[in-house]
Design brief:
about 290 residues, alpha/beta, Methyltransferase, Cobalt-precorrin-4 Transmethylase, Domain 2, 10 strands, 2 domains, five-stranded parallel sheet, binds S-adenosyl-L-homocysteine
């Protein structure tokens, strides 16, 4: 991906919050590209004594905190939460030792990231916290694939769902039938494992087998891959393409917009495949 060689304004032109000893800042690191960190995240990286980070924190981001101890707290595959409790209690202990603690999570800490649970435990232990939102993979990752998560001609709502519950099973609390009927755009996190079940439930509930689907893996990184397919073919095609997690799955006509808006391909010199993918036959802004 092209990266320009300009410089940014100095952060010292503004005042920034101070990460005090004994505090924990729960912070999103965005989906991967370090450029998608917030300035609050960068400010936190520069002040932390210790950073407790997850598997999905983008490569290179920790290099901006050479002064800090880096503790890996990654988990894979939606396994149960025994370890989750350990992570929360580690944060409490570090804070009680008077450390400036940065809890760094991929994407946004409150979007399918257990950030809410960690924050609750910290509050219960009277540890002061700050929450720093991040760009979630289900929005930023799709944007890097050229898929707007909303578009006036396609969807007035979007549903973010997880393909796993706490035990790693397909979530039973989700009513896929109602999601199928009511959501014009469905964005699924952690959906690869149970994709056969999810897609068949959506089709049974009336979604068209031909509905466009995109799978975006390692979104926003140099390894980003995008599969464009349909609801009935996604399982087969994702297997054939040997896609590796993490993956965001997006179901809805908005996926077609990538034919026009694959901005990384355009930046690399390719022409858009189709400048009118929704078939409106008029300029996009003429309404
Ligand atoms: N808090 C994170 C989500 C954590 S759950 C956020 O807001 O983005 C982990 C899931 O997020 C992964 O299984 C995958 O579905 C998605 N994900 C996170 N980073 C991703 C990336 N770079 N590319 C594709 N999917 C990603």
């Amino acid at each position: 991906m092209t990266r320009s060689m300009t410089t940014l304004p100095s952060l010292s032109d503004q005042t920034w919050p101070v990460l005090e000893p004994g505090w924990v800042w729960l912070c999103g690191a965005g989906p991967g590209d370090p450029g998608l960190l917030t300035l609050h995240a960068l400010n936190a990286l520069q002040q932390a004594d210790v950073i407790v980070y997850d598997a999905l924190v983008g490569d290179g981001i920790l290099n901006w905190a050479p002064q800090a101890e880096h503790i890996y707290a990654g988990k894979r595959g939606g396994r149960p939460s025994a370890k989750q409790r350990d992570i929360s209690l580690t944060l409490v202990q570090l804070a009680r030792k008077g450390k400036r603690v940065l809890r760094l999570k991929g994407g946004d800490p409150f979007v399918f990231g257990r950030g809410g649970e960690e924050a609750q435990t910290l509050v219960q232990h009277n540890v002061p916290i700050r929450i720093i939102p991040g760009i979630s993979a289900g929005i930023g990752g799709l944007a890097y694939a050229g898929i707007p998560v909303t578009h006036r001609d396609v969807n007035q709502a979007v549903t973010f769902v997880t393909g796993h519950d706490q035990t790693g099973a397909a979530p039973t609390s989700l009513d896929w039938g109602s999601i199928a009927r009511s959501s014009q755009m469905i964005v699924i996190y952690m959906g690869m494992k149970h994709l056969p079940k999810i897609t068949s439930q959506l089709i049974e509930a009336g979604r068209s087998a031909d509905e466009p689907v995109a799978v975006v893996t390692t979104a926003t990184t140099d390894q980003q891959r995008v599969l464009e397919t349909t609801l009935s073919n996604v399982v087969k095609d994702a297997g054939a393409a040997d896609l590796a997690p993490p993956a965001i799955i997006c179901i809805g006509r908005g996926v077609l917009l990538r034919q026009a808006l694959d901005w990384q391909a355009i930046a690399a010199g390719l022409a858009p495949r189709n400048t009118d993918p929704l078939g409106r036959g008029r300029p996009a802004e003429s309404a």
